[in-house]
Amino acid sequence: MSPAHQIAVLPGDGIGPEIIAQAVKVLHAFEQKFGVAFTLEYAPIGGAGIEAAEVPLPESTLRLAKSADAVLMGSVGDYKYDNLDPKIRPEQGLLQIRKALGLYANLRPVKCYASLSHVSTLKPEIVTGIDVMVVRELTGGIYFGQPRGREGSGKEEKAYDTLVYSRSEIERIAKVGFEMAMSRQKKLVSVDKANVLASSQLWREVVNGLACQYPEVELSHMYVDNAAMQLILNPRQFDVMVTENMFGDILSDEASMLTGSLGMLPSASLGEVRPDGKRNALYEPSHGSAPQFAGQNKVNPIATILSLAMMLEYSFGYAEGAAQIDTAIAQVLEAGYRTFDIMGEGATQIGTDELGSRIADALLALPEPVSV
Questions:
Q1: Mind listing the domains of the chain with CATH numbers?
Q2: What is the pTM (predicted TM-score) of this model?
Q3: Which residues carry out catalysis?
């Protein structure tokens, strides 16, 4: 057996521990099937961090994340923290760990399984066969720009946020977009608002400047409002989309509904290569913590299991093994097993735990690929 890979597991809040448990279940099946080993160390973040150390990102959690080969995370947030100062609410733990680890590139694949094409709110002929990769810049833009704040009072009170990007920030995320397109269908759409925003004008200029380094990639540009419309009108036209932080946040959530549920959308957040040759990376579902469903064994763990598959591919190089997890998920869905969010006529509704177990069993039953 190969030396163990080190994974920091941050279950988070709400449904986080339940969905993480299913990903870990599939990971153990992966270990059994392929003879690889993983060492898991758990730590709190978000509301769990507040309970453990009075901050959403405890220092011990951050140290663990920095030393690990990869981070697998659930979701953060709970209604009971809504009255806290925004600077110390659970969601800050996620923003802080992204910044501290330099996780500037967020990858959100959007794929519609054939057996779920009828679950989408769009017609099956629109969503069948979609396979889009949204590449979102994650550590810049309006979510982090300064100055920001509120001032004044009464009718003259105002609030402000700053949308700022440097050329270097745009270059590094655009390169991820181009390289991702090179590994797929060689089509890249850069999304901006260059008809209005100065930051988008620089964005478009930088992306165009890089295009000559990737002559095989067909580059086009869309304004964000048109991109939002086109995702609904004709999603199959897209291969890779690259965009800034806020636009990517909105568009990827919109794109997730093409699959029928936000519970189907995984993500990977990647940083620069570290001095030890490894790359900081965090894998998490794109949905929230849904505290109203916590402890009910009813939520969909597939986004988290797919995030695990992305970890196995991008952090550990097990591309074929990761593809088998995707195949196992497809087989379970084709057999008609569903959680409540993706139920359809003739399907069998099961709980979180059973769906995770069925996916793990399906993975073990698949013929082994030529390599992991």
A1: 1-109+262-372 (3.40.718.10), 120-259 (3.40.718.10)
A2: 0.91
A3: 143, 193, 225, 249, 253
